[in-house]
Structure prediction request, 426 residues.
Amino acid sequence: MFIKYFEFLIAWRYLKSKRKDGFISVISWLSLIGITLGVATLVIVMSVMNGFREEMLSKILGINGHVTVMSSFVREFENPDRVIGKITSSDLSSYIKDGNFIIPIIEDQVMMSSEGVSMGGMLRAMSVDDMAKLSPAFKSVYGLDMEGNEFPRLERGDVVIGYQLANKLGVDIGDEITLTTARGNITAFGTVPRIKSYRVGAVFNTGMSIYDSGFVFMQLDDAQLFFDLENKVSHIEIFLNNPDDSVVFVERAKSVITPAFRAYTWQSQNSSFVSALNVERNVMFLILTLIILVASFNIISSLVMLVKEKSHDIAVFRTIGASRGEVMRIFFIAGSFIGVVGTFCGVMLGLLISFNIEWVRQAFQTLTGTKLFPDDVYFLTELPSKVEYNEVLWVVVMALAISFLATLYPSRKAAKQEPIDVLRYE
Prediction:
């Protein structure tokens, strides 16, 4: 017990700044600050990446189905109820959310215009009841005499558009927008685009720029009339209890739906996006780990200099009976203290910023006058963050392991010094 106290006492005295070895203390402080910043940055970036991935996927999977069923031969197909009946009457219904969360949809590109402003976008049409099923995916929906996140009971000829799209077109609830589709009527002079005006019945906000600035929702009957697709839909979207079951669902669906139809998982439809997120996340982890490695080299250099500076003390310790292991542990404790304190401070700082990341972003924008995390680039209106505590634990283990390994060489170097070689010329 006395030896442990002795080792900690000497290690602590060596870490304290003195005029003689002040430069060594400065390097030790820089090492501690480096590890703190490295761990904090790693925690913050991983949390933001996790939040970004979850937010993006939740928005995508909240509006788009987990499994999409399309015709193998034609662009649109008739009688979607027949396909839906085959799926719901099989054992596949146990995978489906609420047993019947299946939505027939018409989706196509259109040109939207109002008051001389025109822009392209995507039209998604479904029944009013099915629109209500998607309400949890929307942060808010504003309509006449209503406010919340529930879709209103739209009347014929009404559409629902995103708030960013409404701002770009300069329209409000009750105004009209003109939709144009290339699916026109064939005449002797060629194909004439089909044009029709619709009233804005409600404005929605998903918090995801790609939807809020380019999507229009319409009743299925209106879309079938607009595109001249009587009793036809472009595809069927199925929402599952667990999105990760989509692969199993598609495999089992092959024996239920005829070869005239094919089912696709949300992973395959968003494969490039999901892969890009995973690659970026892994690369950022490796890059930011280098910060901790650089800080660990500072620990090595500071301890090597400390061992050289305290070589006389080491010789005296050995002379009065201290073992090589005790000398090694003294310098190991000194170096490990930097790693442990730096890692603890880094985790605390990282968690503090991660839990208040949006406030930090707003404060940074106010101070610098620049726009951080623009929604037109990253598609989200707020900077997301999700702390995965198992990842934080891995960061702590990695930082401590690097710090401990960095102390081994200087500690062994100190333990191998022979007292007679140091005190020979005293």
About this structure: The chain is about 55% helix and 20% strand. The chain has a mean pLDDT of 79. The radius of gyration is 32 Å. The longest strand covers residues 190-205.
